From TrEMBL:
This is Uncharacterized protein.
Amino acid sequence: MTEEVGGRIFREAWIAGVKKHFPGDPKPGYIAPWEDTPEWEREAAAAVYRQVRQFAEISAGKTAELTREQKGRFVAICWIAQIHKHFETPKPSYVADWEALPQWQRETDSDIFEAIE
């Protein structure tokens, strides 16, 4: 699978999650198609896709035993690392820990893991 395909799968899962869980109308950037997504975000999406895939593979399918929260936390922490990679001084909200994330984002991160898994 190419980097782009993995990134697109991540992005599609993100958009589906935002549409399902976001209260009200999301910002246009939240649901922008792949082609309109900034390059750094495409790279980050592909990287997190790879991390989740590798985690599921080396766990021999036992990621199915994780709770939704554990799955979402894994996606969130992988994403935070990508933010630090791409931004010298990220905004605090970009690197917020799990407990500080809004519920819609937690649910979306869990959905992303399950879509990749």
